[in-house]
Structure formats: C-alpha cells, structure tokens
Amino acid sequence: MTIQRRAFLAATGLLATPRLARAQQAGRLVILGGGFGGASAARFARDHHPRLDVTLVERGARFTTCPYGNLVLAGRRDVESITFGYEGLAARGVRVVRQSVAAVDAGRKRLRLADGAELPYDRLIMSPGIDLRWGAVEGYDEAAAARMPHGWIPALQQVTVLRRQMEAMPEGGVFVMTIPDNPFRCPPGPYERICMVAEYLKRAKPRAKLIALDAKNGFSKQPLFQDAWRELYPGIVEWRGASEDGRVVRVRPAAMEVETEFGDKVKGDVVNVIPPQMAARVARDAGLADESGWCPVKPETMESARAPDIHVIGDACIAAPMPKSGFAASSHAKHAVACAAASLAGREPPAATYFNTCYSHVGPDYGISIVGVYRGTPQRMEEVPGSGGISPRTAALGERAAEHRRLEALYADGWYESITREMFGIA
After folding, report:
1. Which SUPFAM superfamilies match (predicted)?
2. How many domains does the chain have?
C-alpha cells in the first residue's frame, strides 16, 4: 500500500493512523470549499504550517472564478481563462477529496461525505460560498434562471448563456439588470458588469440600452462608476436606485419582464436577475447561520460563533464592514489557518488584521479600485481609520487621468493573475 493511499484512508477514517505518525503531526486541518477562501487556506497551510495534515474537500474538479466573469461578457476573456484545477495544490501535498459534504457533525468533529465515508478533523475551515434565495423575488426560481440568467455563482452555463443572449440581442434592444439589497457577494460586481455589458453594446450594438434596477440608493465605488458611465457610455446606461423605483419585486420570465415595487413594468431582450443571497446550504444545515441566513463569527479568529473548532470564512460569514470579496476571503483564510495552527499547538492566536483590495474594469484601459484594512476585536470587525478608500476621481487627476486609469487596469490584471496562481498552487 502506498504512503499516499494510507494517508488518504487515515484521513477518511478507514485506516487507523499509527501513533508515531500522529505524534509527528500538528493536527488534522480539513478545509471545505475550494474557492478563494478554501483554496487560499489550503495553500497557506501547506506552505506555512507543514506539520499540519491538510485536506481540501471540494466536489468540483475545476473552479470558475466570479472575479473576471464580467470580462467574459465584454468579450475580453473566455471561460477557460478563468477556470482552474486543483492539481497544483495536490502536488504541494494537499490531500484533495472530490466529494460533496452531506453533513457536518460538530460534536464528533467529522464530516460525512456524499458516499457515506466520514472525515475526522481537529480543526475545520469552512468556505462554502453562497446560495441564491430562490423566490425572494417573486417568480424567480431555478427554472426562471434558464431564461433570465443570474451569472452570480461559479457556473459555466450561466455566464455563457448570458453572453449568447447578448450576442442575439437585436440592434436597439434592451438589456435589463436587477441588483439586490445588501449584503451580497462582491458589492462592486454588478456595477462592473454594467460597464462590461455597456462596453460590448457600445462596440457591437451601439443603439442598444442597458437599464439597471437597484434595490439600493448607494453602492461601492459609486462616484467612480457613475463618472465612467457618463464619460464612456452616455445614452447607453440608465441606473435607477430604490428612491427612483428601482427595487424589483417580481419577474415574468415568459414575457421577459420585471416589475418594480411601485408597479412599473420593464421589458428586456436580455434580463439578468441577480437575486438576494445567503450562506451555502451545508453551513446552514450545520446550524452555523443565524436568522439572516449568514454565519456569525468571532472577528478575532474567524471561528464560528455557533460551533467550536470551526472557522467560517469568505462570502458565507458575517464580517461587515468587510465586503464579501475574493481578496477578503483570502485574507480571512490565512488568518483562520494561523489561528487554527496556534490553537492546535496550545498558543494564543495572532492579532487579527485583515485586508481587502477590489479592482473593477470599467472600460478599455480603464480600471478603478477600493482598498481597506480591518481589525478584528472580541466585540466587532472594524475598519482601521484612514486605512483605505477609492481611486481618485477623474476631475482630481486632471491630465494624469488616462494614465492613472490605464495603470489601475494593469494592476487589476496583475492582482488576478497573482491571487489565482497562489491559491491554486501554480506559483
């Protein structure tokens, strides 16, 4: 029997681990979910805590990132270029188990896998992502999503369907987007999508129009996005906030129509519905979510506030004022691994400092960003005063504006390449 085979059987509880081998291990760290949070946790644990036995549980063979999915809609990227496998992590010594998790048994510290096997852990890091709240917008269910795609979870079909619908739009047609109230995955994402769709329409269907109906009056990087819409897409983009009857309450897929709170009916040739969201079902079924549908955590360690020895990171957790972003998930992951390793070694956890950087493409050679630094305390997650902010507005940049925007677009590409190479073990 090979060492790898024995190690896998030991991790799944099918083979008793010899006492000598267990004495050499710092503990069993199991990570559920292979996205920005989970993959980052696995890579960081393997590189910085080599005595941990690290297992990543992820049902998919490959992961398509939500970041840069909007660029697929603009025609700048294809889906393959934003899709990654786990071979790099496996080559670095992460045990990758390709299965769904049927249940989390926090009392016995075990995961029950879809095939019935049990996977024991000493510490569990959960990065399960989100589920969509089907039915939160009347008429919007999984069947409706085939006609009115959301494109908001890593799924090839949704992104490609939306792109094909855009290509099939008549000249002079209407693209309708609905945007939910907070909180949701990637706060700037819908507004970057507005830009990328408008970029495509300007190039391919210049008489077409985009109507964005928003359940909020304010959003991330709002002044920068609105400057870009006026500058790059005049006459194409119409954004309506909640005070302008922008909150959509029902959809009619057969008619390709949405209805707002006060009864306005808006038809589209393409309708992109981004519905309200919540933590993924595996976290909710494990009792880790509260009545909001999201998972409360202890900000100083990212440990669940509802179960011992479990850390919940990324989009599924409540970490406001931190946004639900890929960079934030990666930052959560590294701190959660450090805290788990410290606990298993009988040490105090390190001080909790988290970081977020979020870039958005808004046009050719035109990028914008927002940054923030956060501190976790026993009482709350708080932004460090004066630690961040958004890119300068165009008027403030003057003659330097074009070069500044071009550089930020390059920085965005560099960030994406760097974080994906890191989290999937490519670099």
Report:
1. FAD/NAD(P)-binding domain, FAD/NAD-linked reductases, dimerisation (C-terminal) domain
2. 2
Shared-domain flag, residues 208 and 314: no
For residue 235, CA distances in Å to 230, 264, 358, 364, 379 come to: 8, 21, 27, 18, 47
Residue 110's CATH number: 3.50.50.60
222: Cα separation from own chain's centroid: 20
Residue 181 is classified by DSSP as P
375-384 per-position pLDDT tens digit = 999 999 999 9
Whose CA is closest to 311, among 152, 183, 121, 131?
121
CA distances for 307 relative to 25, 153, 179, 298, 362, angstroms: 24, 27, 33, 11, 41
Vertex 361 angle, CA 209 and 316, to 5°: 100
* pTM metric for this prediction: 0.92
- pLDDT tens digit sequence for 254-290: 999 999 999 999 999 999 999 999 999 999 999 999 9
Q: Which domain holds residue 219?
A: 132-277
Identify whether residues 91 and 143 lie together within a single domain.
no
Q: SS in 3 state form for 246-274?
A: CCEEEEEHHHCEEEECCCCEEECCEEEEC
How far apart, in whole angstroms, are the C-alpha atoms of residue 257 and residue 288? 37
Q: Write the CB contacts of 106 (distance below 8 Å, at least 6 apart in sequence).
A: 286, 287, 307, 308, 309, 310
Residues 218, 283: Cα–Cα separation, whole Å: 30
Residue type, 76: R
User: Are both 29 and 71 inside the same structural domain?
Assistant: yes
Q: Please enumerate in sequence order all residues whose Cβ is within 8 A of that of 58, keeping only pairs 6 or more positions apart, or say none.
A: 32, 33, 34, 38, 86, 96, 97, 98
Q: Residue 111 carries which DSSP code? A: E
- The first and second tokens of residue 410, run together, are 């390059």
Q: How many residues does the chain have?
A: 427
